[in-house]
Amino acid sequence: MRYEEFTIEGRNAVREAFRSGKVIDKLYVQDGCQDGPVVAIKKEAKKHDTIIRYVTRERLDQMSGTGKHQGVIAMAAAYEYATVQDILQAAKAKQEPPFVILLDNIEDPHNLGAIIRTANLAGAHGVIIPKNRAVGLTAGVACVVFGWYYRMSVKEFGGITGDLAGYFLQVCELGMLTALAVLL
Predict the structure, then answer these.
(1) Closest to 3 measured CA to CA, from 76, 104, 82
(2) Among 53, 76, 99, which residue terminates a domain?
(3) CATH assignment at residue 26
(4) 150 lies in which domain range?
């Protein structure tokens, strides 16, 4: 898990990241840590629908770049996620029908980066990725994309309609032309 992800370490830093509106993909909490500041951070993470993983102190020590994690490490997005409306607006601005790529279970940052770069070159207006079971927009992805994802809208889906089929149906209801490919 040691990609060059943007990590935020320490209780105060993580709490302030949530308060400032920074998009946090995952929160790693030391297993069994139940003191006040950590409980407040977990509550904030749940409010923002952040994935919380409980790990051992040794695992946090391995993940930490500073050694001063204080029982919490947050993995922040290296990029702000778009909304479906942002993607549709990008297509409308170019006076083109929306071209969106839906992905599921892409766990390697190099693969996600290559797909985003290819989508950009193919003229896609956006890429939609799942919140769970997939890599987020990390510094490792940015490296592969060469910063091109600043030109590409990327939407993260999850929650109530968090499965790809459900999201695919929502996109169809918006009137987008759709095609689906499944690799088995």
Answers:
(1) 76
(2) 76
(3) 3.30.1330.30
(4) 84-173
Domain identity same for 142 and 169: yes
The predicted model scores a pTM of: 0.61
More confident position, 46 or 77: 46
Strand partners, 9: 73
Between CA 12 and CA 25 the distance in angstroms is 18
Look at residue 183 and tell me if it is in a domain: no
103 and 163 together in one domain:
yes
Which residues are within 8 A (CB) of 138 and not within 5 positions of it... i.e. 6 or more apart?
3, 4, 5, 6, 25, 75, 77, 78, 109
* Residues 146, 115: Cα–Cα separation, whole Å: 12
97-150 pLDDT, tens per residue?
888 888 888 888 888 888 888 888 898 888 888 877 778 776 667 656 655 555
Of 166, 127, 163, 167, which is closest to residue 145 (Cα–Cα)?
A: 127
Tokens encoding 104: 């599921």
CA 105 from centroid of its chain's CA atoms? 12
